[in-house]
Amino acid sequence: MSFDVDVTIIGAGPIGSTLAYELAKEDIEVALIDKKKVIGLPLQCAGIINKRALDFNQFPEELIFNKAKGAFLHSRNHSLTVSKDEDQALIIDRVALDQFLYKRAIENGVGSYLSSKVVSIDDLEGKVTFQNDSTEKTISSKIIVGADGPLSLVSSAIGNEFNYYCASQYLVRIEKRNDNLSFVDLYAYGDLFPGFIWQIPVDENTFRIGLFSIYDYKRQNEILDDFLKNDFKYENYEVIEKYKGKIPIYNKDNKLYKNRALIIGDAASQLKPTTGGGLLIGFEAVQMAKKAIVNALNSESFNSISPGRMDKNDREILQDILKDYQKDFEKRFLKEFSYQFKVQKTFCTLSDEDLDYFFVKLKEKEADKLISEYGDMDNQSILVKEFLKRGLIQSLLPAIHKRELAKIWLL
């Protein structure tokens, strides 16, 4: 049996489009399918990424609105400043980034189907069926990639189940000029954990202000409205736009592949447990997925399989052909995610009073200097290990939490 293309990618977000481009550079024939009519809309991201993203994916400087080198951290009654000498984060035009990455893939020979809703996949035969303008079409390919977001059809077909956080964000314009463009504000309140509120400066007069939490969108909007009324330091402001989206929670028991299919990005819940951010992780995962796909397409045994006439040996080949992708991802991220989940569990035990105590102790022990030196947006385990080495985990929190902390950190 012949296939229509080598690889079908469902989802033309930044991860799907980047993978399509990377495969096209290897002369692999790719079809890219997305339900959206306009790529990038609606915005569903805080739009702040580690500067190291440029090590994995190049994009124009004009897509960067602002750069940040530090953060103001807040509890209810105390604040802390952490920073580095050089910029660490990029505040990007996320809609324009998505569109740039999609256009780059198309210009390099990737076939595209927009306004196309995928209705079913067959991971054994490599078939993807989708609807476009009330007509139905089926594409066959050797590999199917699910980059189709947190409500991934491909992930469901693999047999995965996800839990989610809701995330909400306002675009807020102020009259008074913001003179701290290099700093992001993060607000840690006891009733919001495992999430928090962020305040990201886009330019001198604009912020992205949002949160993720266990609450639904209605409650999150109430929290953001209350924040703007009581905690936002600018009196004259206007909410220009509102956004919302789901953040899948990483589950190490979920599979990243099955037969001819693999999942990546939000579809694979490849996001930081502590913040819900995933672009840098996704860009790294692209290289892992690319390697697994190229190896599969170069495999004589894989290419000899005829979907309509598969025997036991063929099925065994399919079951293992993409396994290195999961192995590579878990080797790179599983320990990091484990540390981040422990951090999250620790903060979930704290009240506002505990957090105030925590911030005071951080200053007393000059731990803010440690955060500035060892803190990393994505590799957070580096800082955690430093805290553990110095015995700071228990000493920074009220004694009443020692038993809980011992269980979380095995102290």
In short:
By secondary structure, the chain is α/β, with parallel strands linked by helices. It contains 14 helices and 18 strands.
What this model shows, in words?
The chain has helices spanning 14-24, 53-56, 94-107, 153-158, 217-230, 279-297, 300-303, 312-320, 323-348, 352-364, 367-374, 381-389, 392-395, 402-409, and strands spanning 5-10, 30-33, 48-50, 64-68, 70-74, 79-83, 89-92, 111-113, 116-122, 127-132, 135-146, 164-174, 183-187, 197-203, 206-213, 237-248, 257-258, 261-263. With 411 residues, it is an alpha/beta fold. Strands 1, 2, 8, 9, 10, 11, 17 and 18 form an 8-stranded mixed β-sheet that branches. Strand 17 and strand 18 (261-263) form a beta hairpin. Helix 1 (14-24) packs parallel to helix 3 (94-107). The mean pLDDT is 95.
